[in-house]
Amino acid sequence: MTQALSIHNLTKVYKNGVTALHGIDLEVGQGDFFALLGPNGAGKSTTIGIISSLVNKTSGTVKIFGHDLDKELAAAKSCIGLVPQEFNFNQFEPLMDIMMNQAGYYGIPRRLAVERSELYLMQLGLWEKRLQVARDLSGGMKRRLMIARALVHEPRLLILDEPTAGVDIEIRQSMWAFLRELNAQGTTIILTTHYLEEAEQLCRNIAIIDNGRIVENTSMKSLLSRMDSHTLLLDLAHPLQHMPLLPGFSGRLLDDHTLEVVVSREASVSELFARLALQQIVVTSLRNKSNRLEELFIRLTGNREVAA
Amino acid sequence: MNVRAQWIAFNAILWKEILRFSRIWVQTILPPMITTLLYYVIFGKLIGKQIGEVSGFAYIDYIVPGLILMAVITNSYGNVVASFYSSKFQRSIEEMLVSPLPNYLIVLGFVGGGVARGIAVSIAVMTVTVLFTSIAFHSIWIVISVLLLTSVLFSLGGLINAIYAKSFDDITVVPTFVLTPLTYLGGVFYSVQMLPPFWQKLSLANPILYMVNAFRYGLLGVSDVNVGTAFAAIFLFIAALAWFALYLLGRGHGVRS
Description:
The complex is a heterodimer. By secondary structure, chain A is of the alpha/beta class. Chain A has 2 domains: 5-221, Rossmann fold (3-Layer(aba) Sandwich); 226-300, Alpha-Beta Plaits. Chain A has helices spanning 44-51, 73-78, 95-105, 110-123, 139-151, 169-184, 196-202, 220-225, 269-278, 292-300, and strands spanning 5-13, 19-28, 33-37, 59-64, 67-68, 80-83, 157-161, 188-192, 205-210, 213-219, 229-236, 250-255, 258-264, 283-288. By secondary structure, chain B is an all-alpha fold. Chain B is 76% helix and 2% strand. Chain B has 11 helices and 2 strands; from the N terminus they run αααββαααααααα. Chain B has helices at residues 3-23, 25-28, 30-51, 59-89, 93-97, 103-129, 140-164, 170-184, 197-203, 207-220, 227-251; strands spanning 53-54, 57-58. Chain B has a two-stranded antiparallel ribbon. In chain B, strand 1 (53-54) and strand 2 form a beta hairpin. The longest helix of chain B is centred in the N-terminal third of the chain and has 31 residues, at 59-89. Chain B starts with a helix and ends in a 6-residue tail after the last helix. The chains are: A alpha/beta, B mainly alpha. At the A-B interface, helix 2 and helix 3 of A face helix 1 and helix 5 of B.
């Protein structure tokens, strides 16, 4: 089956001499929910810019559903919906006008454009604001507007560049549900995000880019299975004076009510709880010290800044 | 994109542009009316009486074509340069760049908006004109064609300026230091026949002279230059600027990195 996105030997050298991409290869299958992660300046936005024709590539090939950007640019562009990182709509236009204009640029007849604009503004909770100008929207609403706008021509490939940045948790979760539903209906989604938990929750496959090179490209499951240990924080019911004896586990007492324990792949959480119970230590709650993907991300990108 | 889709896309840009300047008519349509009114009062009524006739016409009648065309030139240029640069500044130009719109439709859409404003302003200025003098049409077709072609030409100029512009200052440099001097020296207020031979010849290098005179011919039936030459010059400039605008957009100059 034709890949939704096929990138071969893609390079980008900017005019100032900076090489943003060193001949990357990337494949994203149809219907995938794909995470493209990397530290700031790693080359993610350049890659997305080239795919969506906002950045000129230096060399290499990019195909969208088999349409080569060099040979069938219009067909390739018709397949893509882009939700960029920065707000890129006219702040002084009403929402409905922004939607209708975007539909117009794709040659969608007016009646259909009205139907779709209404549908996506409703689905993204912006219907009440449709006659207001975009600058009056909150940050979260502006992000949702960009998603609605990207969907008005019903693209087969949706590219989301940090779609939930600055969005509160409630709206973020509703956006996740919306994106999952969209993906379930067949839209291929490529996501970059600062929130690695978001990538872990939503995406099936992942590529990590660092210094213009793909350093990892695999399934989320396979990547997470490589974790040889994870760290848990346990909140205790009663204070402890000393670190309890836990053979097979390492850890430390952070304070008299909080225990940090490293659980290796060979060990199990059940085993840990059994040992704690033997010593009559009551755990009131537990949580991961950090997101699992975040731990792997830091290892793969050489402990640099944690960012998408 | 098939022909129907392209027509829809062109209309989307065109109407967006028309709506843009219509919403802010106090800033786009009213000012040229007031400026022209002041020109008629000061140059037409007060000073014009002292000047007498030029090329057989009362001075106020002689300056009518130039004043109308000056407003058209300034506004068609200003419309496109402001709108396109604003789209770059707000990054809303990316809405078009990611879509399958061919570059020529982007050019046509913005130029269409500039022409629409040029025509709207010309009607507004003509309305002011009839308060001071009557407008006679020597050739309505020449009037309409010069209006349209001049709007197209200066809309293209505005587009190229906006493509190159990196700041709001850059969009005022050309109108201030190039457009305004060329317009004033393009025979709006005088006949080049009134100039010494050297300055007459130098004036022929000014493209605006041809437009003003062709328009004057359409209204009054007099011109300092051959009207056929004027049309040829306008077409030549339009072809050159259209090619250059498409070349710049094709390379992504100023809009793609």
